[in-house]
Design brief:
Length: 253
């Protein structure tokens, strides 16, 4: 049900580096992580970049919307100085850069499709799916379920429409549906997506809910677990994996 790593570095480097940047990937590697989670959004010229916030102000300086700026405009901005002076001048990372970096360093990816708006959901899922499927064309051609699952990334998204578009564009890339709280229609949603896993906020889980999801044959992945004691607890319940910001406290498994 879950052939992937147990612990992934949230947004590539947790809180120790500017999220969703190549610096974050390098930081995660320094702590031994070979599994990451990161977010993908579209620019105004429909380029795929690693970005969580749709608005400027937290990880990018200024005021405005990411989706209203081109890749060239965004890459002129400082994506690292907000974190600490050591990362000043870090640039926005493209999906292409992230895919190549992870392939070169043997890093498994949980690729969260993060539309900047509901209107952009299907297009974001489609273009992300097309790009990832093309990059992994050789692996997809040789894919044997259950034997080399870690050779492929896993898509996830809170957007049902984005995941459906990714499913159409890249049917061979596995999918996990994100839900902050698990709603009663979770089975129907996973079935429609032909998903392999449910991703959810660990704060709202119960042992009974974990067992219900696992008994239906789905993997269960949680965000964002930063307390080692809590990590052990939910793993004991049957949770398969989780991402963490505290890569300095919780090591890779």
């Amino acid at each position: 049900m879950w052939p992937y790593p147990i612990v992934a570095a949230h947004r590539a480097g947790g809180t120790l580096a500017p999220e969703n940047t190549l610096a974050a990937f390098r930081c995660g590697m320094d702590y031994g992580f070979r599994a990451v989670e990161f977010d993908v959004m579209l620019t105004a010229d429909e380029q795929t970049i690693l970005m969580h916030d749709a608005q400027f102000g937290r990880t990018l300086p200024g005021v405005g919307k990411v989706a209203e700026h081109t890749l060239a405009q965004l890459q002129k901005l400082d994506a690292g100085g907000w974190h600490s002076p050591a990362f000043k001048g870090e640039t926005v990372c493209t999906l292409a850069q992230a895919l190549l970096f992870c392939k070169d360093h043997g890093i498994w990816m949980n690729i969260e499709i993060k539309p900047s708006s509901d209107a952009a959901a299907a297009r974001t899922g489609d273009l992300t799916g097309v790009e990832v499927a093309a990059f992994f064309a050789d692996a997809l051609a040789a894919y044997v379920p259950g034997q080399n699952d870690r050779s492929l990334p896993l898509f996830s998204s809170f957007s049902f429409d984005a995941l459906m578009a990714a499913k159409k564009a890249a049917p061979g890339i596995p999918r996990g549906f994100l839900m902050d709280q698990v709603t009663p229609d979770w089975r129907e949603r996973l079935q429609q997506l032909e998903a392999v896993a449910l991703h959810t906020n660990h704060q709202y889980l119960t042992p009974a809910l974990v067992q219900a999801i696992k008994q239906d044959g789905y993997g269960l992945f949680c965000y964002t677990v930063n307390d080692p004691v809590r990590a052990i607890e939910i793993l004991d319940w049957g949770v398969d994996g989780f991402c963490t910001d505290r890569i300095d406290l919780i090591g890779p498994q």
